[in-house]
Amino acid sequence: MWLKQALLALGVASTSCLTQTSGNGTSPNPDHRGPLWGVSSPPFYPSPWMDGSGGWEEAYRKAQKFVKQLTLLEKVNLTTGVGWQGEECVGNVGAIPRLGFRSLCMHDAPLGVRNVDYVSAFSAGGTVAASWDRQLFRQRGYMMGSEFRDKGIDVQLGPVVGPLGRIPAGGRNWEGFSPDPVLSGVAVAQTVKGIQDAGVIACTKHYIVNEQEHFRQTPEAAGYGYSIKESSSSNLDDVAMHELYLWPFADAVRAGTGAIMCSYQQINNSYGCQNSYTMNYLLKGELGFQGFVMSDWQAQHSGVSSALAGMDMSMPGDTSFLTGVSYWGTNLSVAILNGSIPEWRLDDMATRVMASWYYVGRDKTSIPTNFNSWTRDTFGFRHEYGQTDYGLINQHVDVRDEHGRGIRKQAARSTVLLKNKGVLPLTGNEKFTAVFGHDADDAPWGPNGCPDRGCNKGTLAMGWGSGTAEYPYLISPLTAIQAKLLENDKNIQFVTDNYAYGKIAFAARQASVCIAFVNADSGEGYISVDRNEGDRKDLKLWADGETLIQKVAADCNNTIVVIHSVGPVIVSSFKDNPNVTAILWAGLPGQQSGNSIVDILYGDEIPGGKLPFTMGAKREDYGVDILYEPNNGDEAPQDEFNEGILIDYRYFDKMNIAPDYEFGFGLTYTTFTYSNLQIQHHRVDPYKPTRGRTNPAPSLSGNGTNGTVDPSTAQWPANLTYVLGYIYPYLNSTDLGTAAGGADYGLPNDEYLPPHATDGSSQPKIPAGGAPGGNPALYDVLFTVRATITNDGDVPAEEIAQLYVCLGGPRDAVRVLRGFDRVSIQPKGSAVFEADLTRRDLSNWDTGSQNWVITNFTKTVYVGGSSRSLPLKQVLRF
Ligand code: NOJ
């Protein structure tokens, strides 16, 4: 392994595509690292103010009009959470009662509404990614969004593209989509659009390189035995940042995501929620993000610094849960009054929040919040922590509509057939069916028995943590298979104790078909299950699933394996076993789990999903792993992203490691032939870096700018009833030093504020920027690729056709995914697969010019059915 790493570092590992120079463009700067490299994150100030470009014009105008009416305190209220358990949602900001504007509600999760009844539990992001189906992504987003809307939620805390899935054992990968940035980018964009079509703001998270659970928060690390003073730092270079991790965020921004959540860990040793480079430069500058950045819960570590670095909303508002004090709230009011933060920055925060609200149409679709996430009781305290305001808090509104059907279909379309020796689909007339494994069964305490799904009991249909929803029901595979077989009054037996080997052998020996259900779980770092501290401790099946499969297969020569897992698992011990006649990866299917798998097993749905990640033979084959132990004494653990862009299939390909099942692989009941590759070149204008300067920061402060608001107007109102723990914007003294909640160091501004941080004058535009998603010319279509796909068989089927490009440079991946489509083809019929290649698709990030550049290296296009089955190939001619 060390030899491979060394070769990788030298950039001399194998590459299968040509590398001689041709074409136009310039070479990327040989210094791969760029300004971002490990030890520090460069400062960037001032924080770019919203300009309302790229479809945000109207929302921007309305937001400015709204914000212009606000007092200082009201603006602060829009930006600061009321504290943990202060209101009904997982996060709320303060209300503006004078204008009848209720407290905005931010609520989990990326797969459905968390901690509430009468909602749907959708398939997880990492599962629907396996459908590679744009329409499905959007439809699922819309369905989720409408449930959030009807519960009275303003912001859905999802979707997820951070973690991207750098490390297969990463605890929260399943909340996101795929370690491939293009697949993730398409999925996140469609999901954002779906959610926002329903009239709810999507919050794309966690920004950025939040790739493992270990050491994301110091108190949490103490919980599993490590004393560290600061959260870990994800250290990466500028190329990996742009070509890999920032890519899907760019797609989310381009799709109009109204919110972004900054993450817990540090990026090159600067915290995610006070990192001026990632928030000011990359997100608001280069990507032209128009919405607002909210902190992850307790991810804020400073007051003035986080505001100047680009954070717009503090969640849940208190410094850490239930302290009753905030970095913002009163302290933000003081910081504006004493000039540490210019008022244009506060105006920009408030404008961004309100523009997102208008952008998705919440002025038309907003309904009052009708639940309280801290209890299922109908009556209780509205302020859970303060225990005040007793009344009707849960109206139990059923918001599910017909979504159950959609979920069933979505999960079936996301199921991947990995092996089939002609045994699938089953007929339902098998004489004796035997079902095995705890993963087939209902959980003893019911599907919601463990808070935040923090256990692995019964069938697995979502991971654990804040990324969960309450199941309205969970159809287990055993329930659904029994129902199916009862249609023909067939014989069905089961053993759901994974370790009852004698019973397993007895049932397996009699059966004509055996179906073994196995799983592997993971989740968020605040819960540890079976010594998996959020991140998985290994890639094995849980409850010794491998032995279960071996035991079943030893006595049953028709053993079908169904895997429910959060990501890749090791399948080497059973995949080639001749008695294992079929293997299905069903991911985390959500509430309809059993029905969806029955639809696949018994032929009501034809399997057509493909793996959104690589299934390696062993964990070492991935080249990267979780940093399980601190490596920097009690200082911040240093998580070095030395592999750069080479994660998942890119690493396997570069190192010539054979996976068990490659990225993009999946079978159906027919085969396909690819032919007739045609590439059409489009003439477009040459790429122009964005130039010029921004307007100065707009001044919306009719109520006075810095130093002109009289602190006496910002004092605690005499008649206010204080709610315990609640965060307010008011001051408790007219002396600003005393009013602030922290120490007064007596320094003049310019000695403790970063240079330019308060400068509201016109600023140079960023060359790679220019509109939401980056320079609009990055999305110019340079080529259209077409290929004919023929269905060789006698059954109708869908093929997920994939387009890869070799960018040709020595440091590039062998191939990168750049396009895909799920195409439906009649028996013996053909269809044309078509995919566009944009300028971004063909560019590398050039650290020198800080822009995207099409290099001189020969670019080769590949088309086929998986990352390793690419029968068509052609060199691109510019
Ligand atoms: C922390 C998680 O990282 C985030 O994803 C979630 O939205 C918040 N907690 C709120 O529950």
From TrEMBL:
One of its GO terms (biological process) is cellulose catabolic process. One of its GO terms (molecular function) is beta-glucosidase activity. Residues 799-867 form the Fibronectin type III-like domain. Residues 692-712 have a biased composition (Polar residues). It catalyses: Hydrolysis of terminal, non-reducing beta-D-glucosyl residues with release of beta-D-glucose. Residues 686-712 are annotated as: Disordered. This is beta-glucosidase.
